[in-house]
Design a protein that fits this description.
alpha+beta, seven-stranded mixed sheet, 25% helix
Length: 706
């Protein structure tokens, strides 16, 4: 039973009516309005109880390690299932195998269904999942996405433990766990494989730990109430409620602790092993293998973890090859450094530099400082023969100049003053900024390069990719990811479509180093028109295809599927001076496992890009589904589902859906949802409010204003 209390003592209108009760039609209107507001209050009260448990607590009342969900009352919270995460990385050469175990604990007396939105690297190939209940281990099976969802829902209705891993974006996944009993713990182990990054003689691996808060553009629409995110689905982001988990402040409630343990076997002596954003402990054994742990054992899940290391100068790789034989095919992973060039003899080409800076609310705090410092450094590195312009965007787009300006001292000084005046506020309307940056292309012989500084915190990636493909023309798009948890899927994919590169800046101390390296790339493209050829008629399937241009410090990394008897490949491309080619033997490479999974993941990524190029989405969906099922990996169209055969929840007790909050990204000053653009009010509330306002308007018109 819901108790309803209407406070009308502060309303002059209500006071006058109570003092002098109306009669006839006006009385009818008054009591109709009173009934409507009573129903409205009932709905809002019911919503509050539905979104949380019946009992509320304060921060001081909550036990250590509890996750809290805000209620409609200031200072009051609902207890939610908690999530601790253990990460085990095993790195061998170019390949990393990662096991992520999420521990869901239900501290309440209710049966609950947990929904946890979590990030993974955009190139992760998720291929295994186990559900662990006590000493029982239930292995996940790959199924077509709709079928997996049906299996999960059926198990949930039958009172069985079940888990469902779904891909919402290549870097955003959801883990749904059904029927967690009172005070019960369930662990979900997720395994994936990925390749390392290598740039400017440095290897790196990054583990994202927080789903950045997405800006959701477009027209809101109500199509049922599936999903527990804070944002409503829109015409531009039809799955907004699946990618917008509730958010807690970094200093509130549970820390979502993450432990990270790494075994690193590089295959060569290394130097400068470091973690830029988290303190670590490291040990090395006689076999040159490193064991690495977080110095504090755990860390809050509020910023990405990155580990970097360099080979000793005498062991810098020029080429590396790993192979795997599976059935009648051979899978390979190839890394090849482009030819060395004497840059002192190269003439620097005149450029038209278009700097685009994100000034939306999600950039407030440290991210805005990093972006402004990076832009100021970029302006200072312009040459006298260059031209430039600056575009800032939030809810609106504004250009520093109507057209690009010559890089004269007075123009640069005015531009620097303009940059100093920028501040973060509003929404993240990237589409308008992309359209502006890729328009007004001059017909000069200058190389046109667009530098896009943003955290990429948007949910309409597909729309933006189509704009890049349609309007890129002869420009090159270079993305710079800013902040503790940028949307690396958008950033890397946009750079790939834009024939540029993606640079990640995680803290302000890195700006000088990272921007200087970026300008080296801008000034010195190394290899273009790269392709792989072979002499016989063998069927060789390699990805990415086509291969993008290579820049200074970048290697060529390709996944291949080829016949076992294939002995040699030829790789060729064009430098600024001449055509270059090399013969590469496909024999005697290092042995590895899971290369078929990496090949399938790279092929899926390249096929997905082809939709932006006009390919048939249904045909692409069919191929991706087949690849996911064959190689047992999670894709947009395939999911992993695990079901315990034994029902554990009593059939007469209903379980409640709970969305597990994520942490606000480190350094993020903007208020958490629903105080960010879009999504401040739930879709249920908007629907009820809209209906009530319509009824109120009708009643007033009929009885009061007739």
């Amino acid at each position: 039973m819901h108790s309803v209390e209407i406070n009308v003592t502060n309303s002059k209108f209500a006071h006058s009516i109570i003092s002098s009760p109306p009669s006839g039609s006006l009385r009818t209107a008054f009591f109709s309005l009173l009934f409507i507001f009573t129903v409205f209050n009932f709905f809002t009260t019911s919503q509050a109880d539905h979104d949380g448990f019946e009992e509320t607590v304060t921060i001081n009342d909550a036990e250590s390690g509890s996750l809290l969900i805000e209620t409609n009352q200031v200072g009051q919270y609902y207890l939610a299932p908690t999530v601790d995460t253990d990460v085990q990385m095993d790195i061998n050469g170019l390949i990393a195998r990662i096991n992520v175990t999420q521990h869901f604990t239900n501290p309440s007396t209710e049966w609950v269904n947990g929904i946890y939105v979590f990030p993974l690297p955009e190139n992760a190939a998720v291929d295994h999942m186990n559900m662990i209940i006590g000493k029982r281990i239930i292995e996940g099976k790959i199924k077509e996405r709709k079928q997996a969802k049906q299996i999960y829902e059926q198990a949930k209705q039958q009172g069985k433990k079940a888990s469902l891993i779904e891909q919402q974006r290549p870097n955003i996944f959801t883990n749904s766990v059904a029927n967690i009993g009172p005070n019960e713990k369930v662990s979900i182990s997720i395994q994936y494989q990925q390749t390392l990054s290598y740039d400017h003689r440095q290897f790196s691996i990054r583990f994202p730990m927080v789903v950045g808060i997405r800006y959701i553009p477009g027209t809101q629409k109500v199509e049922g109430f599936n999903g527990l995110g804070w944002a409503m689905n829109t015409n531009q982001v039809p799955d907004a409620r699946s990618i917008t988990p509730p958010v807690t402040d970094s200093d509130q409630g549970h820390n979502s602790p993450v432990s990270i343990n790494i075994n690193l076997e590089a295959g060569f002596p290394i130097v400068n092993l470091e973690s830029r954003y988290h303190p670590i402990n490291k040990q090395i054994n006689e076999a040159n293998q490193y064991q690495i742990q977080l110095a504090n054992q755990t860390t809050p899940a509020n910023r990405d973890f990155e580990l970097t290391w360099r080979p000793q100068t005498t062991h810098e790789p020029q080429a590396a090859l790993f192979t795997q034989d599976k059935d009648n095919d051979r899978y390979a992973l190839l890394m090849l450094m482009p030819p060395e060039v004497d840059w002192s003899k190269q003439q620097t080409l005149a450029k038209e530099m278009i700097y685009v800076i994100d000034t939306s609310g999600s950039m407030s705090g440290e991210s805005m400082q990093q972006a402004k410092q990076a832009l100021l450094l970029g302006l200072s590195q312009l040459k006298s023969e260059d031209w430039f312009n600056i575009i800032q965007f939030n809810s609106y787009t504004e250009a520093f100049s109507e057209q690009a300006l010559p890089a004269r001292e007075n123009n640069i000084e005015r531009a620097k003053s303009y940059v100093h005046s920028l501040h973060a506020d509003g929404g993240t309307e990237i589409a308008a900024a992309l359209n502006t940056a890729l328009s007004n292309v001059s017909k000069s012989e200058r190389i046109r390069q667009v530098i896009f500084l943003t955290d990429g915190s948007v949910g309409n990636e597909k729309q933006l990719f189509k704009i890049i493909k349609r309007k890129l023309d002869n420009s090159r798009l270079f993305t710079v990811g800013i902040g503790s948890a940028p949307n690396s899927y958008f950033m890397s994919e946009a750079a790939s479509l834009g024939r540029g590169t993606f640079t990640y800046i995680g803290k302000i101390e890195e700006v000088q180093e990272k921007i200087s390296q970026l300008f080296q790339k801008l000034n010195h493209p190394v290899l273009s028109d790269v392709e792989m050829i072979w002499k016989d008629e063998s069927d060789i399937d390699y990805w990415p295809n086509p291969i993008h241009d290579l820049y200074i410090g970048e290697p060529l990394i390709v996944s291949l599927k080829l016949p076992k008897d294939q002995k040699q490949l030829i790789i060729k491309g064009n430098t600024s001076q001449t055509e270059w080619s090399t013969k590469l033997p496909i024999t005697n490479g290092g042995k590895a496992t899971g290369l078929n999974v990496l090949w399938a993941r790279n092929k899926i990524q390249s096929l997905s890009q082809k939709i932006s190029h006009g390919a048939d989405p249904e045909k692409i969906k069919q191929v991706i589904t087949e690849l996911g099922l064959e190689h047992h990996i999670v894709t947009k169209h395939t999911s992993l589902v695990a079901v315990d055969v034994t029902p554990t929840k009593p059939s007469d007790i209903a379980s409640k859906n709970k969305a597990v909050p994520v942490k606000k990204p480190h350094g993020w000053n903007m208020k958490t949802p629903g105080n960010i653009p879009q999504g401040a009010t739930s879709s249920q509330m908007n629907l009820v409010l809209g209906i009530l306002l319509l009824i109120i308007g009708f009643m007033l018109r009929k009885y009061v204003f007739k």
